[in-house]
Amino acid sequence: MKRILLSALIITALSSCGKLNDVLPDSAATKPATGNITRPTTQEDLKLLNMITVTPVIFETPTQVVTTSVDGSTLNLALNERVHLLMDKDRFENSWSIVFNEDYTGSIFNGLDYTTETQWGTTVHNWRTNNLNQFVKTVTDTTIAGTTVVNVKFERNFNYYKNFDSAEQAQAQQAVLQGKTQTIKFATRYEPDTDTTRYHTITAKVVFRK
Fold it and tell me: Diameter of the chain by CA atoms?
């Protein structure tokens, strides 16, 4: 009887230390998991869902990269604007427009001339639309705390430029900007809205590179 009990204990111990394939049939060990893993709803989730019913939310904004170059006596600042927004699905689908504005106050871009390309492929000078419905963008659904919300991602490119008296002056300004960072602001809201001054605003960092 002792030998039987000892053998049983050894088998149990070895089984508990074994690899997954040692204790499960092949079909169970290699079968991929199915279904979604749902995490508990957090207070942050509920707060975000409430916020996007009021305004779109600019979400996880990356550093905006500005590529500098010099053409003769002109300093070019190519800003690659990358933005990710979360929106309430009903408000996104029923809004006349989604307003999206930039504020360059305090940055080198403030007051500079620029060119950009519209969604129709036309290059325009010192003009841009602030209606997100006219942006080239990616729109997908996602789920937060069991509620379907809208993901909107877009990139826009603006070429700001400044003319100097000489190439040396333009190159000197380029050298000053190299590796430096500044900040700009983004603001967005639904239209129509009972309060047209109600925006979601964030500050984004820009970095200058050659």
Answer: 102
Other residues' Cβ atoms within 10 Å of the Cβ of residue 154:
16
Would you give the DSSP letter of residue 36? P
pLDDT tens track, the chain, 210 positions: 434 333 443 334 334 333 333 333 343 333 444 444 456 889 999 999 999 999 999 998 999 999 999 999 999 999 999 999 999 999 999 999 999 999 999 999 999 999 999 999 999 999 999 999 999 999 999 999 999 999 999 999 999 999 999 999 999 999 999 999 999 999 999 999 999 999 999 999 999 999
Inter-CA distances, 171 with 102, 138, 157, 176, 198, Å: 27, 37, 22, 9, 42
CA distance 190 to 111: 27
- The CA distances from residue 124 to 99, 119, 129, 137, in Å, are 20, 11, 11, 19
Structure tokens at 41: 């709803």
Dist. CA 54–CA 158, nearest whole Å: 29
Which residue reads 């309430």 in tokens?
88
Kindly calculate the radius of gyration of the chain based on its CA atoms and give it in whole angstroms.
Answer: 27
